[in-house]
TrEMBL record:
SUPFAM superfamilies: Homeodomain-like (SSF46689), Periplasmic binding protein-like I (SSF53822). It comes from Luteolibacter yonseiensis. This is Substrate-binding domain-containing protein. InterPro entries: Homeodomain-like_sf (IPR009057), HTH_AraC (IPR018060), HTH_AraC-typ_CS (IPR018062), LacI/GalR-like_sensor (IPR046335), Peripla_BP_I (IPR028082). Keywords: DNA-binding, Transcription, Transcription regulation.
Length: 425
């Protein structure tokens, strides 16, 4: 529709529509959520630059928010109705498509649009040969292993229900990272027992099996799952046999999905896969393809990292006193923490406390405090628009000057430069 778009739209059969005059009214099913900010009364709003369809059979809110980040600035007409009712778009013309298509229904529909620039969210199926943007599950598995190792655990579990390629990559990287550290992993693989019938086994039967399996293992143990839905199952299984979380079982999920994390009776730790950035990268790639600037390519986005919550809020050492101090540091890092007070909390002389802490934790108390403050500062920089003084205060670094000094030493850049880089890497 030349009256709307900068370049002619492409029909599903690959042909171009004839020119039309004027600006046609959008169809009732359109959902142009990404129009530019409302103009003043004296201004005429610019027409949308492109029409893009959002097609999905596996919807994640964070993906769409990332797409909107780009679409709003490019003044796209972004049609997202499928996420409400599951019906494929009724439009017959579009400049581009952003799709998550694993069902045969969506893949069949996509074949009709062979002449339209498209980008897949998540690794594309083999029979849908279009460029894709995915998150890195191998890095997620390694990040999860490192997080649980830092808690002092020696006994580890990987729990999976089914094993699509993403789950296999995450699980194998988790195991490899732990094996490198001299640790072994117990596999609780429900699919290996039930095969093709796995998803037909009643949930109650699966939870009983999981509860019995966890109860039989040496405690304390740390469990990583491939999906926050599985984290909820581990919580339920622990409750069935009276296992305490995180004292007996630490639970680490993946995806950091707001619904599942909120449904749990205690906050769940999870790996933030950075789906919002993946959505933005997919929109940018599609924009480049539609404009003729880019060639089709595949992109993997690094996960943000582990978001630690109550389900892993523990530390395992042979000294309850050192464990108590370390947990105190992690909960109170933003406050002023003196070595004499921490040593007194441990019931030790200060020199002995420093020595024991480093022996059991692997680094000094000051390093632990610094790491906790730095993690908080980076999270606030990435996820908020707080000014530097506020971030310094919230993270325990005092003021913006000190925050800048820390970032110069640890990252070789200013906090502002780190903030920009973290949002676009």
């Amino acid at each position: 529709m030349p009256g709307i778009h900068n370049s002619p739209s492409i029909k599903p059969d690959g042909s171009h529509p004839p020119p039309v005059s004027g600006k046609p009214e959008p169809a009732a099913s359109h959902d142009p959520i990404s129009l530019s900010p409302h103009p003043s009364k004296a201004e005429t709003p610019p027409p949308p630059s492109r029409r893009v369809l959002f097609v999905t059979d596996f919807y994640q809110e964070e993906i769409l928010l990332g797409i909107v980040d780009h679409a709003r600035h490019q003044n796209w007409e972004l049609i997202t109705n499928m996420r409400f009712h599951g019906m494929l778009p009724s439009e017959t013309e579009a400049d581009g498509i952003l799709v998550t298509g694993y069902s045969e229904r969506v893949r069949h529909w996509m074949r009709r649009w062979g002449g339209t620039h498209s980008v897949h969210l998540g690794m594309a199926p083999q029979d849908l040969p279009i460029p894709w943007v995915d998150v890195d599950y191998e890095q997620a598995g390694r990040a999860g292993a490192r997080h649980l190792l830092e808690l002092g655990h020696h006994h580890f579990v990987s729990y999976t229900l089914v094993k699509p390629p993403d789950t296999v990559r995450l699980r194998d990287a988790f195991i490899e990272e732990l094996q490198t550290a001299g640790r072994s992993v117990t596999l609780l693989d429900f699919e290996s027992i039930h095969g093709d019938n796995t998803l037909r086994v009643p949930r109650e039967e699966r939870l009983r099996w999981l509860a019995e399996s966890l109860d039989s293992l040496k405690k304390p143990l740390a469990v990583m799952v491939d999906d926050d839905r599985r984290s909820l199952e581990v919580v339920a299984a622990c409750d069935m046999v009276g296992l305490k979380i995180p004292e007996d079982v630490s639970i680490l999920g993946c995806e950091n999905r707001a619904v599942e994390v909120s449904m749990s009776r205690l906050p769940l730790s999870s790996v933030d896969m950075n789906w919002r950035l993946a959505g933005r990268r997919a929109a940018e790639l599609l924009d480049g393809l539609m404009e003729g600037r880019d060639k089709p390519r595949n992109i993997r986005v690094k996960p943000v990292g582990v978001v630690g919550r109550a389900s892993t809020a523990t530390f395992i050492t042979e000294s309850p006193e050192i464990t108590r101090v370390l947990l105190h540091i992690r909960e109170n890092f933003a406050q002023s923490l003196r070595m004499t007070d921490l040593a007194r909390m441990a019931g030790m002389a200060e020199r002995h406390f420093r020595s024991e802490f480093k022996r059991l934790v692997g680094h000094s108390p000051r390093t632990e405090i610094h790491r906790a403050r730095l993690v908080t500062a980076t999270k606030l920089l990435r996820d908020t628009e707080l000014k530097l003084d506020a971030i310094a205060f919230e993270s325990g670094l005092g003021n913006a000057k000190k925050l800048c000094e820390v970032f110069a030493e640890d990252f070789g850049m200013t906090p502002t430069a780190w903030r920009v880089q973290s949002r676009y890497d």
